[in-house]
Every structure is written in C-alpha cells, then in structure tokens.
Protein: DNA-binding protein
Amino acid sequence: MSAEQQHRDGQAADPGPRSLAQALRERDDASLGALLRSRPDLLHPVPTDVTQLATRAGTRASVLRALEHLDRFALQAAEALAVAPDPASYQELLDLLAGDDGDEEVAGALPATVALLRERALVWGGEDRLRLVRTARELLAPSASHSSPTGLGPSVAEATSGMSPGRIQAILTAAGLPHTHDTVSAVAALSGLFADRERVAELLEGAPEASREVLTRLVWGPPYGQVTAEPAAHLRWLLDRGLLLPTTPGTVVLPREAALSLRGGRAHRVPEPTRPRVAVAAERKPQVVDAAAGGQALAALDTVEELLRSWDEGGPAVLRAGGLSIRDLKRTATVLEVPEPVAAFWVELAYAAGLIASDGGYVEEHHERHDRPDADAEGYEDEETRDARTRRRSGEAEHYAPTPEYDAWRDLPPAERWAWLLEAWLPGTRAPGLIGGRDGRDRTLSALGPGLDRSPAPEVRRRVLELMAGLEPGQAPDPATLLERLRWERPLRSAGPRREQPEPPRTGGRPAYGGGVAANDPEALRTKLTEWALLEAEMLGVTGRGALATHGRALLGAEGRSEGAGAGTAAAGSARAAVVAALLAPLLPEPLDHVLLQADLTAVAPGPLVRPLAEALGVLADVESKGGATVYRFTPGSVRRALDAGRSATELHAFLDRHSRTPVPQPLTYLIDDVARRHGLLRVGAASSYVRCDDESVLDEILADRRATALRLRRLAPTVVAAQADPRTLIEGLRAMGFAPAAESAEGDVMIARPHAHRTPPRTPPAPVPDGPPAPDATLLTAAVRAVRAGDRAATAPRKETPQAPGGLPRTSPADTLATVQAAAMTGESVWIGHVNAEGAASQRLLAPLRVEGGYVTGYDHTADEVRTYALHRITGVAELADEPDGAEPAR
Structure:
C-alpha cells in the first residue's frame, strides 16, 4: 500500500472535529480560558454555550480583531493557510512558508505559531486537516477581484470559472496538454501543469524574453495587469498558454499555481519567523540615567505648575467647537518658553490628569444629595454649578481653569505629584502630537478639543517601555530597531500585498514632537505614536538620556494599574504610584527655604523652593530666567504688586531678612522704601472715578500733564479730582505717568488687590477610549468557562419528541406542568422547561427540580450551573429528557 493511500486511510479512520464548535468542545477548561483571555471580545456577553462561542469567534469583527493582534509570522502563517487547499496538512503549510529549499528557522518556529492560531480559534482540525476559520479565509484569500496579502492571485479554477469550454481546450492545446472531454478535467490538468516546477520551467524555455519579464513583474504581486483588445505578441504568448488569465475586460491575472512555481513554492518573499532584536544605541551608567531622569521629572513638575499658575485666575476661552484656539496655545507656549507642540503636550497632560477643565458644560455629580445635610428634594447644586449654568444661559464664554483637584495635587510631595501625572499619561488615549493636523473631515485638530483619542496609543506607549525594560539598565535603544520590532509584533494588514517597510532615517538629531499625521494612514500613525512615546517619556523623566530609569521600570508593574487617568488621590495612592514615588523621591532635591539676594536687585534660588516661599517671591519679584537655579528680579512694578496684595514695607523687609542667606542689599531696601512711600499717596475711588490726595501740588502736577488728557480730569476740591474713566483705567493711566495710586473702597479704606483663584466645578478627567474590551481577570475567566460548560451540557441534552411540538418544547397546561415537575423532584430526574421572565424574554432551561411548593419550583439549573427558583405560572411547557443510551451519563 502506498504512503498516500495509508495517509488517506488514516484520515478516514480519524477525521478529527467536524466543526469549530466541536473542536472547542473537546478542549479542556484551561485551553478554553486561554481563548477567552486572548480574545476578550468573546466574553461580552458571556456565551450561553460552546456553539454560540464558536459562532461569535467566527464573526467578521471578532476575526478582524484577532488577526490584528497577531505578530508578523503568525499572520504570515494564516495568510499561507488562506492560499493552501482547505483543509491543508501541516506539511503543506510548512512548504508554503519555507519553500522548496526549506528553512530551518521557519521549521523551528512554525509549531508554536500553529499552536497560537489554534489557541485563538483561528485554526482548527488535526495536523493533517488544518482549517482556517471561514471568515479569516474570506479576508485573507485571493479572489478574482483582489489579491491576497501574499501577492498571490486566484487559482486556475477560480480564474477560469466563467470561461467557455472551447477557450479552455484551446489553452490546453497551446500549453502542450492533451484534449479532455470536460471542463473539470481540463482545469485540473492545467492546474497540475502549473503546480509542477519542472514542467513550468520547460514551458518557459520557449517563451519570448519580454514574456518572462512580464512574469517577473507579476510573480511577487500584485498579480494583475492591464491588456488592450489587441495585446502585443509577448502578452498573447502568455494568454494562449494560460499563464495570464482574463478576470475582467482589459484585466488579466497570473494564476496562483503558476506564481507559486515561479516563487519556488514560497507564499511570502521573506518569511519572518524571528522577532527583530532591539539594538543598543548607547550605554551609560544607571546612576547617570536616573539622575538625568530625576532632573527632567523636576522640570516637568515645574512646567505643569507654571501652566496651572498662569491659568489660576481663569484661563483661555473654550472654542465653540471645543478646545483651545491657536492664539491661546501660542500664548501658553510663550509663558512656558517651549515650542507650541510641546506646550500642547503639557496642556493635554494636565487635562488628562484632571487638573484643568472647562468651567462650563456638564457637571459630574460628585456631590450626591445624601452627602449634603442641607440638600432639598430637588437635589443639591453648589454656587459654582449655578454660576456655570447661568453663564451658559446668558451666552457668556466658557473658560479653562484649574479644577479643585489641582489644590489637592499641589499639596502633595513632588514625587507623588509626578506619579499622579504618570498615572494619567500611561493609559491615556489622547495623542497631543496630532494637534495642528487635520481630521477625516479636513478640520484642524486643536488642543483640548475633540478627535484626539487614538485607542492604540496606550498599547504602543506601554510596549515601548517594556522593550526598553528588556535591555540592561543604562542601555538606550536604537529607535529604528525599536520601531522595526513593534512593526513585527503588530503588523498592519491591508487589502493588497505587504510591501517592504522603509527604514526610518538615522540622523544625529532627535525628531521634533508633533507634526500631525494623515487621518487615513494607520501605519504612519503607529510610527508617530512610537516616536511620540519616546519623546514624551524623556520630557516626563521616565527615561534619562534615552535609557529607561529605575522609577520608569516600576511603571510597568501590573499591580495598582488604574482604570482611568488621574483619579484624584486614589491614583496617587495606588500601589504602583507609591512604588514609583518612593523610587523617584531620592532623585529629587529637597525644596529650599532660602534665596541669595544680590546687589543688582536680583535673587537667586539655587534649587526648588518650598511652595509658600515660591508663591510669595513670585508676587514680590519677576522671574528672569529658569534652569538649575531660578533668577528673580525686583522692579518697582513687582514691589508695587506686593504692596497691592496687602503687604507693608515692614513685612517685605522682614520677609527678605528671614529667607535670604546673604545680607539684604541696600539698593533693594531703598527700592522697597521708595515705592512704599509713594504707594497710596493718591487714592482712586468710584464716582465715575475720582482721585483724592492730601498733597495739592501732586494733583496740580497731574492736571498739568498732557498725558492726563484722555482721562478727562476735573478738579472738584483742592484735594479731589474727578475723572470720566473707570477706576481700573484711571489707575493704569496714573501708573503710566509715573505715580503709584492705590484703589480705595466706598468707606475710604485702601483695597487690597489679591489675585482671585478661579476653580471649575468638580470634574472627572477624560476617560481613555479603549481599543477593545478589557482583559478579563482570573475570576471572570473561571466563571465564564463554567457558564459555557454548563450551557453546553444543557444545550446538548436530548429531549423526548412529542406529537404536539416535534423538535421543541410542548405547550403544557398548568396542571400537567405541576405534575411533571413534582414527579421529577420525587425521582431526581431532569426536565426541559420553557420559561418567560418578567421582561417577556423566553428561554429554555434544563432543570433538576428539588422542591415544588407555594407556586414555585426550586432546582439545579444546568444551563446556568446554579440553583434557581422559577414561578410555575411563568413556565410555558415541560418535556422529559430522552432515554440515555447504555453507558451514557445523564446531564448533571
């Protein structure tokens, strides 16, 4: 007996599972749980039985998601199965991937890859009968209208399906094959010719050189070409012999069997069984990396604080379509002294962390009525909420402002504040690098506006950090090889053949942040997301000098993984945030409580200052430069600002004496005394407005000044001058003339001008847009597998056929229903019941009654795998189970 005959006999003896449902039913619980873990979309909702699970696993949306989560070689194996016979043997699949010459790497990697495809229910069947799920085959297989991702076209049988029998016989004759009596045998003969490498080579020996050049261009795809009504001689030679077959008028295709022969049996030009290695671009001491990352983390905190401080009294207005205007983004970039794309990143980070929001719009109900003792029956609404509602009704513009969470964040230690930001950055789906680009409707994407969510962003961000963590501490990866590795792990499918990816340019400089990306280019988006992840990690201090820092590695811990971004103190207090903060804290300098005063009216802060000192000094002086040390400059305007805030000259002198490690310079003392002596000499109040001064000569000087003409002053008394300008304009005009007026109240007291901190109502940070259902935990997997098994046992339990309802449940009367379930409870048998719940949904349950009383039946529901109670009046019918065959166990 031949080996082929033995192989056929073996297949006949053990045909294997007949369907995907049967293949899944034969799995153990661990294998079924692995399927649900790798494809969590199958769990929503939990399938009722294995048949429903198999049906859902074969739907187009689920199969597409599963294919998109395969690595390059697994996807190549699936593509090869799509062009192989159905079913195909393991050896046929290996030949398609390794080719006629074989490939040891392919042979070594293929068993694990086939096991992976089996685990994810994309392939089923025995080793000699591998079947690709039908939907996956439809997506990956070539047809008469499009090629597969391998670049292969339709088979001879598919391409000749509409061809006349006479034309097929003519092709056989031209190819040197004998005439056949029917079309099926003619197609089989032509397919056999093209599948034979030696016979194809012999056929092409007599081909014109131009014909061979055409085949060379088509062999690796795309396999389609255009011909005219009168094709050239070299094209006619190929058409006559079936090496080019017509598909549509004017279009021809190279048949799959001929292409494989010309390729040497390979389905892919370059199989990629081995994952690319991430190369090391530079190697530094881990201590240097941690120090650099710690310094950058401190700079990140300073930048976010500066942003929020600049918006403390109310930030820029919200555009009607949502988001920040280009002008406001430029102003923010000027304040932060960074490029606009980088400023957009910090704005988006603060927004994702829940530190800034719009002061109007929908208010999240953080304050429940039962939390407020004074809540009335209509529900509690605080003053800020009512103000926001009033502004919306009056048409007043909404503005961005810090949220109440900002005050809580500001009071945390620096390391915990940084961890709070990182808990928002890592799972966030908003991509600030897209700002400035265009969306699918050709609208500009703005900071804080809609359309910035990209669901692959968290996965790319985390995977970049994981690959960096795979290197030794202190090693910085080469970005080009990092990107190549990510492309191998998540190749992007397309309708056409896969092209070789161009390698990104290797330049000495780093790519600029931002720049946007085309809305319909997912490959460019993933590339940009990778570049942005590297740049954002460096700006935040997760990496230092291109390598992952010690506290950056702690970010990848699975414990404490938050569901949302910036969830208040809960995010900062999570297990992961606590670990990260503890690792970062030693790298951050201790805040200082002193400065160094200099004779040139400047103060140098040699490090970060404690918050009360920094806030007080920010009022008394202007920041001149930032860096490792911050330089503050004292000016008459800054000193007047401190006096307007209610500080006296004596208090300012004492403040400087207390916090300066150097003697207070005499020029600074004179500056404070001089500004204080003139401060409040003039008093401005509201008439329209007026100026009051005890020194009449000062008022004479003001009235004689030409610059006062615009204020339209008029003397009412020797010490009082009235103006037709409002008090704010009058004060600014007098200050421009060199005076130092102070505003006074209606009672004549000097008004203290302290900045008013504006806060939004309570807000929740934006929720990330997931790329799919979340990965199930062990508890959910165990419960889901148990439910599927129970439902499957119930669904496959046989039932007795009845004349009233063959193949289904009979409609029984209440008396018959009661008698049947009582008898089953006494004998311990199971019965089928039809049940309608309170919502009117009908279902069939396999029930083992235990107790019948009070109009209810209680029993073990095999369908739900638990004890349940059903009302007898909601049971529509009852049927006994069919007799079990000898040796069979009843369903339990």
About this structure: The mean pLDDT is 82. The longest helix spans residues 286-310. The longest strand covers residues 842-853.
